[in-house]
Fold this protein.
Amino acid sequence: MAEVSATPQRRSSAGRWIVYAILGVFVLVYPFMRFQVGPLQVDFTFPYARHLLILIFLYALTAQAWNILAGYCGQVSFGHVAYFGIGAYTSSMLLMNFHLTPWIGMLAGGLAAIALGLIVGLPTFRLTGHYFAIATLAIAETVQTIFMNWNAAGEAKGLWLPVMKDSLLNFQWKSKLPYYYVALALLCLVYLATYGMERSKLGFYFRAIRDDAVATSSLGVDILKYKLVALSMSAFFSALAGSFYAQYVLFIDPFSVLHLQHSVLVVLLATFGGVGTYWGPIVGTAILVPVSEFVRIRFGGTGGAEDLIVYGGLIVLMTLVEPAGIVGIYRQHIRPQLFARKEMVDVHAMAGEATEE
């Protein structure tokens, strides 16, 4: 009986890996694709076509970073733009003042974001629900105010990064192609980290805290410790995204890397795709970012805010139809039996972890 029930699971797993392989090949060759469909000439070698995928990778990276804390651990934050901005400013200031390669600055930005996260987390994790969300919002606004008045950081005028010779060490190129693959590599990095976390004891603890923190604490789990771990992971990857953004556009200011709008956008992308799911953030980003760019180009500049109306309407529609997002629709209506089996496997795994302890 076990062998019979396992056969569909193996077939489904093999099918998923085939789909992953096809998608992997697609994103690798996308910048070189050029073909014709009837009278329509499709050319992805143009800079804007590559720029669009870079935006998707960047926002998917930030959405998945937020998802680690909010989706898996249940700590909804509206202040993640602070970590994004810390990453951008740290790498930029180290480059401008100490001539350190942006790669080192990116790592330093991630560590600085972890430090900020620990400072923020220790007092705010005593709060729960909307009180915690409001506290993170206030902290993000405080960080933005500090940088707007910090002379060394350019105040409200911002920082123009120096234009240097094209090289991997300088993290600067005239072509968008290298930026494309760096953004893709960073996205793969956060997804590999999430994959390992999701299938480890750490992931089980995160989900237990999200589902019932009181019951989890009663079993002897150090709630504060694992919340801080989730926040550290989330802040680190958000800072990597901020560092990449700074090197990509070569200009940062408090309004571009520390604005509340960025935090809200990240929440919307993850929510639209499916909070607390592995693929939700990238699915939501892959849909909403191109739609946002299309309506901005098509309707933007008319003064009627039609682009924002269309964008917001999609979010409202998804919230009304399926609060669990696109991935939730797939799980509940397209492949419900597959995910029911997966949840049963997770339950047995968690039971095994508890037995070992």
User: Anything to note?
Assistant: Residues 46-356 form one domain. Strands lie at 34-37, 40-43, 159-160, 251-252. The chain is about 75% helix and 5% strand.
